[in-house]
Amino acid sequence: MTKENLSKDNGPKLDVKIGGLRLKNPVMLASGTCGYGEELSDLIDLSALGGIVVKGISLEARTGNKPPRLFETPCGLLNAIGLENVGVQSFLKEKLPWLKKNQVTTVVNILGNSIDEYEQMAALLDGQSGIDAIEVNISCPNVKKGGVLFGTDPKAAFEVTRAVKRACSLPVIVKLSPNVTDICEIAIAAEEAGADGVSLINTLLAMAIDIEKRRPVLGNVFGGLSGPAIKPVALRMVWQVSRAVSIPVVGIGGITTYEDAIEFLMAGASAIQVGTATLVKPAAGLDILHGLVDFMLQNNYQSIGELKIQD
Amino acid sequence: MTKENLSKDNGPKLDVKIGGLRLKNPVMLASGTCGYGEELSDLIDLSALGGIVVKGISLEARTGNKPPRLFETPCGLLNAIGLENVGVQSFLKEKLPWLKKNQVTTVVNILGNSIDEYEQMAALLDGQSGIDAIEVNISCPNVKKGGVLFGTDPKAAFEVTRAVKRACSLPVIVKLSPNVTDICEIAIAAEEAGADGVSLINTLLAMAIDIEKRRPVLGNVFGGLSGPAIKPVALRMVWQVSRAVSIPVVGIGGITTYEDAIEFLMAGASAIQVGTATLVKPAAGLDILHGLVDFMLQNNYQSIGELKIQD
Amino acid sequence: MKKRHFDKTARIIENLEIRPNIFLMRLACPDICSYAQPGQFCMVKSGLVQGLDPLLRRPLSIHRCHRDTGEMEFLFRVVGRGTKALSMQTSGQEVELLGPLGKGFDLKPTQIPIIVGGGLGVAPLLFLAETLSGKKGVAILGAVTKGELLRLEPFKKTGLEILVATEDGSFGNEGLVTSVLERLLAKLDDRAARDVAVFACGPHPMLRAVFSICNGYGVKCQVALETIMACGSGLCLGCAVRSSGGYMHVCKDGPCFDASRLLWE
Amino acid sequence: MKKRHFDKTARIIENLEIRPNIFLMRLACPDICSYAQPGQFCMVKSGLVQGLDPLLRRPLSIHRCHRDTGEMEFLFRVVGRGTKALSMQTSGQEVELLGPLGKGFDLKPTQIPIIVGGGLGVAPLLFLAETLSGKKGVAILGAVTKGELLRLEPFKKTGLEILVATEDGSFGNEGLVTSVLERLLAKLDDRAARDVAVFACGPHPMLRAVFSICNGYGVKCQVALETIMACGSGLCLGCAVRSSGGYMHVCKDGPCFDASRLLWE
Ligand SMILES: Cc1cc2nc3c(=O)[nH]c(=O)nc-3n(C[C@H](O)[C@H](O)[C@H](O)COP(=O)(O)OP(=O)(O)OC[C@H]3O[C@@H](n4cnc5c(N)ncnc54)[C@H](O)[C@@H]3O)c2cc1C
Ligand SMILES: Cc1cc2nc3c(=O)[nH]c(=O)nc-3n(C[C@H](O)[C@H](O)[C@H](O)COP(=O)(O)OP(=O)(O)OC[C@H]3O[C@@H](n4cnc5c(N)ncnc54)[C@H](O)[C@@H]3O)c2cc1C
Ligand SMILES: Cc1cc2nc3c(=O)[nH]c(=O)nc-3n(C[C@H](O)[C@H](O)[C@H](O)COP(=O)(O)O)c2cc1C
Ligand SMILES: Cc1cc2nc3c(=O)[nH]c(=O)nc-3n(C[C@H](O)[C@H](O)[C@H](O)COP(=O)(O)O)c2cc1C
Ligand code: FES
Ligand code: FES
Q1: Are C52 and B228 in contact (CB under 8 A)?
Q2: Which residue in B63, C133, D143, D244 has its CB near the most CB atoms, within 10 A?
Q3: Cβ C57–B280 below 8 Å, yes or no?
Q4: A237 within domain boundaries
């Protein structure tokens, strides 16, 4: 049944727009939890999803942090991958062609340590066929500013966003860090700099200690917390940001079931991303999509936008 | 066995000092999760604990938020009690005598909407026999400053702390909000204003939505997230703050097992508070204390301070 | 009797699915049993739960209390993960129980009890009925349809007069328990009305209707309420309901309330 | 054969506690079984888990694969909440399985296999031994004491020569599997050394010792590694180990590695 519901004629309208980015439905996979897509192709049809956000890419390949990089916490996952990635050139040569051939709506997550690096990345990705949008990960240290994260300073967030926008004609989504006093302030800065949308949240800065070994569990000491544990915090931020900006908001954080996804869409998100849940169950995104459609049918919602709670 | 281990002569030394506050051991119960003590007396001997922090008290009684006030999230509890409390006068008359009679080390958690209110509270509590310390909850809106929380602004945190310190001679612990970009900055402000210690974390601002009713679950829309879900974030903050200030740090946030408590003590906390875990299991604090003692015996730790990881 | 409560691990004697998704769990817990009063509840956690989700214990009314054997019963519906885990348990396994908690029904002024239970609302009422057993009184039990009626047989054994209402008329009176109650109260004269005490448990709209009927006839009415709870024992102040005197806490001031003290928005 | 993997719900046929805290679980999963290679693993979640804690599936090696019946076996030790939940399951219940995952042992150049399993390290090695069954080769199995030796009988049936080492000498050779291996390799001439291939699984210090011995004798050595995993399928990049060519990922590039490519700090 759900297969049919997904077709255009009967059933609710699922498509959403984030600036110039058109998604056939609001369910995407989050950066860092779906590889470069191909890894999942054995189990799910990625082209049925709204899109995928590939693992964060930098100008040069990065080797990542020293292990251990993972630790499970109550209903959460702590990771310190350290942004290991193949670098933009390998991505374009080795990963993008597969995504294009398989008609996967592809958002490229980019990261850098200076405004200049972000700008170069954007320029390199611009005009590449097969790339539908850029997601700018601003939870990175600004090496020129003593390592303060771009995502914790509205001015830095503004500047990165503007640089990326100027360097390319792709739709640009700015991905916000939750480790701030006032996330709306950062979202507004991104909006003012011309972002087509904001996505949130990235992981919460966290840690764990191995009491037998008497040292932090992660090789990197600190890591990012994701998964169901953080969902209530993510939802609150999506609620706040949706009311603070007028560009579309993409909700991320602990989304595991279709009910979770609906909470984010009701809070004001135009689309959502599934992260950790895909690590646990590769088909999580598709299950969420099917559950969403069934819910909309049962409750007579005609389009995604209608889900939003108006206050 | 564990009963004996708690005795002074054999076994490790468990006592800790937070400024002038002496605790016989580092395990306390957190404010808002152990009532005014008496509610637990049927099940556990409170005087065996390091101490308890009573439900936050204001100058006048408060009725609290409209229900629903609670919601369970994955490994977490969302609450919006709204600081319901009997007010300082009733506390002194009706609650304190029981605590005193039962030799419970008592920390009074205070809250206010202006520096003036905090100051008055501190003056009223000063010199009352049976009160061992004050914990200043600064996760409250400063009504004179447009409702910005004291705990998110280092200057406001400094001023509240100084006012409370000046108004009383009791040891003062400042309880920090985790909803900030840089918690160390706030901790340092409290230290500079003369705090005897800082305790952290209070709850993470969060929410949940009832998708059938199409509205936030909590009557207050937003609530505070506590429980195991937030432990990795709390531990990270305790680690950071312990390295940023030289006054004692009290670790709070999701502590459920003795292993959790040891993680916080290793991260640098001098003492810990058990919150949500007591709601689930009234004896959680005592179980943690016993587990801690056994661990110290097995691993040859002589005192609480030795647990701390030196980097 | 002095009020006391316990935190105990209890062994399950039997856990039966008596209707689809409705379980009757019998277990041994002499301590709690010997202090329990009708209308009180326990905070319950399944021993099958290995991790920390579900985190909180779940409130369940004490359905029955065999003081001689120290056995207790719970009657519960599978709603979510907490009750699901309880439903998966079998005899010999353990549950954690905190109880008995809260204020039960006030039985002091009870001359002629009228018990009104809608659906699963019978959960706390069988213990009450068995305690009142021997008194002249009535129990009105309701369900959507005959097949969903719960615990008719044990109620019959209490000696109370049993009236049944089913919404589809498949058994007893057609309609709601409130209609049966209304007809019953309508027959009372003023003096009898003073001697009658209604005890009700069920969905909130039913309780509101029961109270409004009782109020109309000047009959005393107690209701057993449900709210979301964290501690069940007065620590968190999370289970607030509005009363004429400000917020009350269901786990401490209730779950059984004099209905006239509550605000029925 | 084309590499494929599946996400399946499988029914448990039998779950036996063969030693204290060590379980042998047999289940039906023809799809995974027909593609599995020795050394591969599955990400496993117990059907008993109702909530979201534990959150992740747990990696378990494929212990045995009966391709004719579509039945697979896992051999696991109860370590924490994930394996605890698996241990509580009984026949007829379900588990979720993602697999077969990773790169198994490379069997191409195998002339004379020497299998070295320490403790629970035998988990992936029985499948290997049964696949190599018929070849001339050796399996060295070790444990602390006789009572903790695992799976001796099925190893015997493979036709490989079986050598046993127990640390307390209660059975077979006294000492570690590495001593037995060392004595075995010492007897080889250079030509034989080229034909031998060692396959090892066990605690990390044991693997390091095995590699260093093999290295000394110029013998090829493959090891099956363990790291914490989240996805088990190359999505998260969390399972990194250091190799001479930078980080490799245990779930994708392994778990079976040519030991000479790893950095053995
Ligand atoms: C005093 C009291 C007595 C009760 N007695 C019974 C009984 O005898 N039999 C029975 O079947 N049910 C009873 N309930 C309701 C029962 O507690 C809930 O159905 C149960 O908590 C649902 O938990 P869950 O994990 O299965 O569902 P989930 O949906 O997973 O629960 C999520 C959260 O909501 C809470 N919750 C959900 N529904 C309710 C509810 N109706 N009342 C209170 N909390 C809820 C849970 O405690 C939990 O925190 C009683 C409730 C109260 C307050
Ligand atoms: C490729 C591979 C194959 C394995 N095969 C087997 C096997 O056949 N039999 C067996 O008994 N064990 C095997 N293990 C180890 C097994 O996965 C762990 O013992 C198990 O994950 C512990 O989970 P838990 O929930 O019981 O413990 P917990 O302590 O609750 O686990 C906490 C976290 O640590 C991880 N973890 C803890 N110990 C290990 C470990 N040694 N390896 C990997 N992750 C760990 C868990 O995945 C989890 O995220 C294998 C591991 C890997 C990587
Ligand atoms: C293993 C892992 C790797 C991640 N890598 C990236 C990344 O490269 N870039 C990025 O912007 N976010 C990254 N994230 C964050 C996720 O995209 C997502 O924002 C976060 O995990 C919260 O969503 P979740 O709770 O659904 O996982 C990563 C998360 C995980 C768990
Ligand atoms: C129901 C509830 C009420 C609380 N009330 C207060 C309060 O009055 N004052 C305060 O400073 N903190 C209050 N807190 C926060 C706790 O003291 C503690 O900081 C927080 O819950 C994190 O610890 P935990 O995860 O162990 O619960 C409350 C927490 C809960 C769950
Ligand atoms: S449930 Fe905690 S006070 Fe009632
Ligand atoms: S466990 Fe995720 S990549 Fe290996």
Answers
A1: yes
A2: D143
A3: yes
A4: yes
Using a CB–CB cutoff of 8 Å, tell me whether D81 touches chain C. Answer: yes
- Cis link prior to D113 (omega < 30° from 0)? no
**Strand partners of residue C10:** C95
Overall domain count for chain A: 1
Interface probe, candidates A150, A220, A233, A266, chain B, greatest B C-beta count within 10 A? A233
Contact A225 B215 (CB under 8 A): no
- Evaluate whether residue B69 is within a structural domain: no
Question: For residue B57, what is the domain's CATH number?
Answer: 3.20.20.70
Q: Would you call D58 exposed, middle or buried from its count of C-beta atoms within 10 A (0-12, 13-18, 19+)?
A: buried
ipTM exceeding cut-off 0.85 for this assembly: yes
D146 interfaces chain C, CB cutoff of 8 Å:
no
Whether residue A201 contacts residue A137, with contact meaning beta carbons closer than 8 Å, is answered with no
Q: Which domain holds residue A39?
A: 3-61+86-205+229-307
Cβ-Cβ contacts under 8 Å, D84 against chain C: 50
The Cα A222–Cα A217 span in angstroms is: 9
Q: Which chains lie within 8 Å of chain A at 3 or more CB pairs, if any?
A: B, C, D
Q: Which of B76, B181, B209 sits opposite A152 (nearest CB)?
A: B181
Q: Is residue A141 part of a domain?
A: yes
Mutate to test the interface with C, among A72, A73, A75 (most CBs of C within 10 A): A75
Q: How does pLDDT run along chain B (311 residues), one tens digit per residue?
A: 445 445 555 789 999 999 999 999 999 999 999 999 999 998 999 999 999 999 999 999 999 999 999 999 999 999 999 999 999 999 999 999 999 999 999 999 999 999 999 999 999 999 899 999 999 999 988 778 877 899 999 999 999 999 999 999 999 999 999 999 999 999 999 999 999 999 999 999 999 999 999 999 999 999 999 999 999 999 999 999 999 999 999 999 999 999 999 999 999 999 999 999 999 999 999 999 999 999 999 999 999 999 999 98
* B119 lies in some domain: yes
Catalytic residue check, A184: no
**What are the DSSP calls for A45-68, one per residue?**
-GGGSSEEEEEEE-SS-B--PPSP
Of A35, A42, A64, the CB nearest to D4: A42
The residue type at D250: V
State which of A203, A237, A238 you would mutate to test the pocket of ligand 3, scoring each by most atoms of that ligand within 8 A of its C-beta.
Answer: A203
Q: Which chains touch C (3 or more CB pairs under 8 A)?
A: A, B, D
Which tokens in the block code for residue C143? 């369900």
